[in-house]
Amino acid sequence: LRLGSATTSHDTDKLLGGLLSADGFDDERSCHSRFQSARYRRNAGKRPSPYLVSKLRQHEALQRRCGPGTDAYSNALEQLGSGKMQSYDGGECRYLVSISYSYQGLGNRILAATSAFLYAVLTGRVLLVDPSNHMGELFCEPFPNATWLLPPDSFPLKGYTNFSVETAESYGNMLKNNKIIKTDDAARMPPPAFVYIHLNHDASGGLDKLFFCDEDQRALRDIQWLLMRTDNYIVPGLFLLTGFQEELGMLFPEPDTVFHHLGRYLLHPNNHVWALVTRYYDAYLATARQRVGIQVRVFGADRESPELLKQITSCTRKENLLPELLTAAEPETANAVPAAARGQSKAVLVTSLKSWYYEKLKSMYWEQGTVTGEAVGVHQPSHEEYQRFRAKSHDTRAWAEMYLLSLTDVLVTTGASTFGYVAQGLGGLTPWVMYKPPANGSVVADPPCGRGVSMEPCFHDPPAYDCKTKKWADTGKIVPHVQHCEDVSWGLKLV
Ligand code: GDP
């Protein structure tokens, strides 16, 4: 494998500082990315805390003890199928099923599953990701000798993938209908067999968002099966819960590294995606002195926007990410530049549904020289034109491109895009974020971009309720490291 010139001691740390388990994956061939990713990352990233490492090992053991294929799992399915309210028997196997609408983009689904994983770890539940998320087709299994996928055929709740805010068993509806009581009397009431928690962006008005309150967490604790739907990165909301704060502090002494660590732990491209990533990297990015990622999130029906192109070039010039172009009046000085400088190059990786921005950037750096004499190569792996749903090859390319962006040295993202969030978090990169220009499409955003406040994703639909005062509140002011996002003003992110 080639890495360009520099190799660091971290390159050999293929288990990412203990984040990945050394045991249980005897056959490296079944998932190359697990063992090779460190060799492709110049930025070794942050080191996980020893506490996080030991907690992950414990969680893996829990998935093995209680997951599909075990007696404990068969018993738990039987209980769920019986549908009866049940007294909690203190058994250790409790479950969290993570579901997402299949029409959500891949970035959203990745953030949802990663958030669900953290909640499962915090609450000692087995995580099972519903396969209608199509996660199984893109990722390797993260847990040694255990699965993170729900076997759908034996799952007794029919129609669970269509559960919505209307579902009678949603947490909000069960509260409303007194099926769950949060007072001390609750101890005498047997808990329901399962509860569905609807934390999708359309949950705004419902009571499901009380999920982010401590007393509600106590009410949910003894329910054996929780099903959770979200399309969001709910992690900042978990940091608002007093009951989790101490544990989260030990797991993540640096709070702005949650997705960075959990993403690198969970999200391993399967061999097909990994082949796309590494072939592209080796062909276009490996030998460059510096790799610059530019994520241009546009939508299928968007026109080609000269203003957006200007925003991109203003951002990269202002922040010194790409060299200035010589103006037409200036003589070509390339030959006067010392040979050493001429040999150095920058590789720009553009990702977008459209090819227009890439074509323009590429021509610019071909038709004009740069003041530094550097050669700038511009590359874009695909242009899918429209966002598609339930299309495997489309998701495959999206995942490969998110991952390639995460291998760059500096990253420019489009604000509010979960696609960009995944790349920045995996890469350990604090991006330059291109904000949306004012609604009038004919102006260039000013400033064109700004440095993100952290590498964490933004929680776009956070609770706006203070559980202690029981009033609407600014949840960006409750704990110091949960603040509003730079790209979505009402969102919350860890800093
Ligand atoms: P978000 O909508 O920007 O938050 O990102 P998502 O990943 O959730 O949804 C956008 C979806 O559109 C992606 O998952 C892809 O399917 C597709 N898409 C958007 N931008 C790109 C791109 O640059 N490359 C590829 N291959 N697909 C993209």
Q: What report would you give on this structure?
A:
By secondary structure, this protein is of the alpha/beta class. It folds into 3 domains: 9-40, no CATH class; 50-266, no CATH class; 271-457, Rossmann fold (3-Layer(aba) Sandwich). The protein has a 6-stranded mixed sheet, sandwiched between helices. It has a 4-stranded parallel sheet with strand order 2-1-4-3. Helix content is 33%, strand content 12%. Helix 14 packs across helix 15 (418-427). The protein has helices at residues 32-40, 50-66, 71-82, 106-123, 171-176, 214-221, 235-238, 242-251, 258-266, 271-285, 306-318, 339-343, 356-367, 392-406, 418-427; strands at residues 95-99, 126-129, 194-199, 225-230, 290-296, 345-352, 375-379, 410-414, 432-434, 450-451, 465-466, 471-472, 482-484, 492-494. It starts with 31 loop residues before the first helix and ends with a strand. Residues 105-108, 297, 351-353, 382, 384, 387, 394, 397-398, 401, 417-419 line the site of guanosine-5'-diphosphate. Its EC number is 2.4.1.-. GO terms for molecular function: galactoside 2-alpha-L-fucosyltransferase activity. Keywords: Cell wall biogenesis/degradation, Glycoprotein, Glycosyltransferase, Golgi apparatus, Membrane, Transferase, Transmembrane, Transmembrane helix.
